[in-house]
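Moderator note: this is an archived Q&A kept for reference. The question asked for a predicted structure of one protein chain; the sequence and the answer are reproduced below.
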Amino acid sequence: MDIANPYLMFLGDVPDALAAKTALGVVDWRRDWCIGQNRLPGCQADAGLTDMSIAAAAKAGAKTMIVGAVNAGGRLPDHWVASIVEALDAGMDVASGLHVRLGSIPAIKEAAERNGRQLFDVRHSDMTFATGKGSKRSGKRILTVGTDCSVGKKYTALAMERDMRARGYDCDFRATGQTGVFISGRGVAIDAVVADFISGAVEWISPAADESHWDVIEGQGSLFHPSFAGVTLGLLHGAQPDAFIVCHEPTRRTMRGVQTPLPSIQDVIDLTIQCGKLTNPDIRCIGIAVNTAALGDAEAQAYLAELSAKYGLPATDPVRYGMAKVVDKVVEIYGAA
């Protein structure tokens, strides 16, 4: 799906910032794509954007209203429907990361049809993908992989795109999850694709490109996670990465949501290379990205230095310190932009 910006971020009347994490993630990385926010009375979240009515946002040029809030079960509250209909009547498309399909609600479907507007259900894809072919594609690719799920693969990929562009590289972030799709304006929530077509969907996300072009592909799950390894493997094969970055959270001992012990970083490097060689024999690890939020600055710096010495790779926290050291590795191996 291709979602047009600028965005109006709809926060509804959510009770706290956590319930608006989709909107906040978009604003963190694509603030310049966001015209403003629309909040209902009682909303306790604030994305730091200008509060605007739907009519004012449309007049200012907003092309898509993003339902940037989440709730238990991914439901769409009945009292939000009127705001969505108003946005469609004002000439905007509407996109949502909720589980419920926007078009399953009659009033929203009718408003979209009468205005000729598009509805984007980012957790669902209506596209038909081919099975993966594994054929060599032109261009270069970096994939973020993890010792576990929810360890910062999306933020690492976005930080890598930002810092590579700052060095002059022709580079694009490629989204494989719903928040990433909002941030990039394009992509597929890969965990919602039928298993046989995962690698083909990733080939679509990152097509053949100029040899000097880099795609930085958002990873999902972990090859070691018993719940999500199937998605992770299909993504790895479809991404056909030349290089990968291992993402890690240092305080965990078992994988999220299960009792499986956390693999070592070396385990992840070895298995990623072993499996990734199927579609790219030249795959290699270029760095380690660590979520050090639970560590003080001195402790974080010492831990990163320890990892770098142990693995012979640059190690950094993409949020705290950026990805410059890993970009240096790209320059060393593949040459400057």
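Archived answer notes: Residues 290 and 317 are 5 Å apart (CA to CA).
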